[in-house]
Amino acid sequence: MRNIPPAISKDPGTKPAARWPLMLETEGWPDYALIDSGHGRKLERYGRYRIVRPEAQALWTPRLSEAEWESADAHFTGAKDEDSDGRWRYRKPIGETWPMAWRLPRAVGEGEVRFLGRFTAFRHVGFFPEQEMHWAWFAQEIHAAKRQPKVLNLFGYTGIASFVAAMAGAQVTHVDASKKAIGWARENQEMSGIADLPVRWIVDDAMKFVAREVRRGSRYDGIILDPPKFGRGPNGEVWDIFERLPEMMRLCRQLLSDDALFLCLSAYSIRASFMATHELTAEALSGLSGTIESGELLIREEGGGRTLSTSLFSRWSRNG
Ligand SMILES: C[S@@+](CC[C@H](N)C(=O)[O-])C[C@H]1O[C@@H](n2cnc3c(N)ncnc32)[C@H](O)[C@@H]1O
Asked: Which residues are the signal sequence here (predicted)?
């Protein structure tokens, strides 16, 4: 038996170098914190609201009293796992949305993405705070390029990753199957005051779009993909991560330009290790230089408490 330290291995000429496990942890920012967790729930602060949602991995005991949890503004109840229905219960009537903001890394400029938190069905709040570790990373990759790279954001949802990329200097193509999600993304773009930045909106099945782009000979310098476990395209096309991700990665490789900068894949709510996405990414990107890093995205309770794992990822950088 042995412990595996974060290691870097090189297989020159065939595959990018590999660095894993890489545990990327956020402790939040002024508009977001994980306040407490335990007994299968988490208590978070999103802007002006404190929100309680189920969290199957919080096996431990909460720090705060039940009264403090109960005083939260909104509770999502009735669903034990990500796939089942539940409903929001509010302490007093509140609107469906509220303002949020996230500041780009200082090295990239003074920009701030402004967007709406939103009480959506299936417990989500309109964005995934753990993704900030990736937002900061690809913002720096784009900024350092000193050109206007073309970035593709697949399964782009409410657009925060697209706006971070655009504010860092990219020309962005944002793809999502849901007209409603793209409508919310456009609201966020307006809120951020960046209507003039180049973001192209595509309502399409991600797989169909990528296959079409390959046939057209299109190329991108960066690709972000954050696919759900299961989803549907606008015409009922079925997305099942275990069935379709290998083909998706093969097509994404064909879309990468000769001097591409990065590819960033995350996955959540699936029964798999980051080794699965790591080996798939290494296979899909064989022949490229650079480094693939793989691991988990973590959120630490504010004040340095416990750590929750939210998702797994593999990301490649030419300059890593
Ligand atoms: C949970 S979100 C991804 C999170 C997002 N990348 C972020 O960081 O906020 C999953 C998105 O995938 C979209 N989706 C599901 N199936 C799809 C498909 N077949 N093609 C394109 N988008 C799809 C959904 O509409 C949803 O917006």
From this structure: none
- Is 119 strand, coil or helix? coil
Using CA positions, which residue lies closest to atom 15 of ligand 1? 231
Nearest alpha carbon, ligand 1 atom 13: 155
Q: Which is higher by pLDDT, 94 or 121? A: 94
Q: How confident is the model at residue 269 (pLDDT cuts 50, 70, 90)?
A: confident
Instruction: Examine the pLDDT at 7 and tell me if it is beyond 80.
Output: no
CA of 232 to the centre of ligand 1 (A): 9
Q: Does 144 score more than 80 pLDDT? A: yes
The 3-state DSSP class for residue 102 equals strand
Does the CB atom of residue 128 touch ligand 1 within 6 A? Answer: yes
Contact yes or no for 318/290 (Cβ under 8 A): yes
Q: pLDDT per residue over 132-142, tens digit each?
A: 999 999 999 99
Distance CA 145, CA 150 (A): 11
Q: Count the Cβ atoms, other than its own, within 10 Å of residue 61.
A: 8
- pLDDT, tens only, 30-80: 999 999 999 999 999 999 999 999 999 999 999 999 999 999 999 998 766
Residue with tokens 């189920």: 54
Domain ranges of the chain: 97-317
Q: Which atom from ligand 1 is nearest to the alpha carbon of 158? A: 9
Domain at 97-317, CATH from 3.90.1150.10, 3.30.70.100, 3.40.190.10, 3.40.50.150: 3.40.50.150
C-alpha span between 62 and 69 (Å, rounded)? 9
Q: Give the mean model confidence (pLDDT) for residues 147-167.
A: 98
